[in-house]
TrEMBL record:
One Pfam match: Glyco_tranf_2_3
Keyword Magnesium: no
Name the UniProt record assigns to this protein: Glycosyltransferase like family 2
Record key words, sorted: Membrane, Transferase, Transmembrane, Transmembrane helix
InterPro entries xrefs: Nucleotide-diphossugar_trans
Signal sequence bounds: none
Organism: Mucilaginibacter gossypiicola
Domain of life of the native organism: Bacteria
Statement: the UniProt record of this protein carries the keyword S-adenosyl-L-methionine: no
Segments crossing the lipid bilayer: 204-226, 233-250
Length: 302
């Protein structure tokens, strides 16, 4: 999908289509009213094909040559309606990698992706890097028209499909689905600004609660235990730190010292989420590329 690109994307895709005749390029010149650009592009991609399986993926994903074939084969064998693959996050910044490590732990605890395939569990998963859906299930779900104004469309797709009884599963994409998500802490902070408030359903009180919860459960415990605790409490904090170090060592490509960065990472992420929420409320909406979407529009009140 070439979505209103102003660089050399069109020329590159034209060259690709000559080299790979099976490649179909769809160009979007205008954005329909009432749509976020990405969501519309994903929907137009679905409209451009009649295949049984549709893969929604961000443009910056690097796939192993066999990744998609294996994913479709797994989905068919397991009789799934929706398959998500968690991408391997790659960064040239060691500090950013340490933040990703903490963020991954927080997401795992919150989303419980290992329970997504359990029909009795409320756990679900949806990742913009890799959302593979069965066409009939996607159409019953309502397509992206149902979530056309959700910046967190990937999460919502997974959440609603699971809630409505579609069969879902999650795989790890190490070595198969890779992503250089952001290149610096500043990029990460700016990147979450447009979509993190939607996770709280544009409710400032809920967003503040989420930030406080992040601080109390991840950022503050070990520092407070080391600084203000007695000998017993400090020993407990040391044991916690050792377990964090062991986790980082046994879950590559993490480094042992990432354990020491957990409080900083949680503080940084909490600040980013709080700032994004406050800025969005103060501004009255979000900017997505060159378009402004008011909170009333995003909430469906207009």
């Amino acid at each position: 999908m070439n979505d209103r690109s102003t660089d050399r994307t069109a020329d590159i895709l034209k060259d690709f289509s000559l080299r790979y005749p099976k490649l179909q390029v769809t160009t979007i010149n205008t954005l329909p009213e009432g749509w976020l650009g990405k969501n519309n592009a994903l929907y137009q991609g679905y409209m451009s094909t009649t295949e049984e399986w549709v893969l929604f993926a961000d443009a910056d994903i690097v796939f192993h040559p066999d990744a998609i074939n294996k994913a479709v084969g797994y989905a068919v064998k397991q009789q799934l309606d929706h398959l998500t693959i968690l991408p391997e996050l790659i960064s040239r910044s060691a500090i950013l990698n340490s933040v990703f490590a903490t963020l991954s732990i927080m997401l795992m605890v919150d989303m419980k992706p290992w329970e997504a395939k359990n029909p009795k569990s409320k756990a679900s998963s949806g990742i913009g890097a890799f959302n593979l859906v069965r066409r009939t299930a996607y159409e019953k779900f309502g397509t992206h028209r149902r979530i056309k104004l959700r910046p967190d469309d990937d999460l919502q797709l997974g959440r609603i499909m699971k809630r409505e009884g579609f069969r879902q599963d999650v795989l790890a994409g190490k070595g198969a689905v890779c992503l250089e998500w952001y290149k610096s802490l500043g990029e990460l902070g700016r990147g979450v600004q447009k979509n993190s408030f939607s996770i709280a359903n544009y409710n400032l009180a809920q967003a503040i609660f989420n930030v406080i919860h992040m601080l109390l459960t991840v950022a503050l415990p070990m520092p407070l235990m080391f600084i203000f605790g007695d000998t017993t409490i400090r020993i407990m904090a040391g044991i916690m730190l050792v377990f964090h170090m062991i986790y980082m060592v046994i879950v590559p490509p993490n480094k042992w010292w990432y354990a020491f960065m957990i409080p900083f990472s949680a503080f940084f992420l909490a600040w980013c989420f709080l700032k994004a929420s406050v800025v969005t409320v103060a501004r009255g909406g979000i900017y997505w590329r060159d378009s402004f979407y008011s909170l009333k529009v995003l909430k469906g009140e207009e």
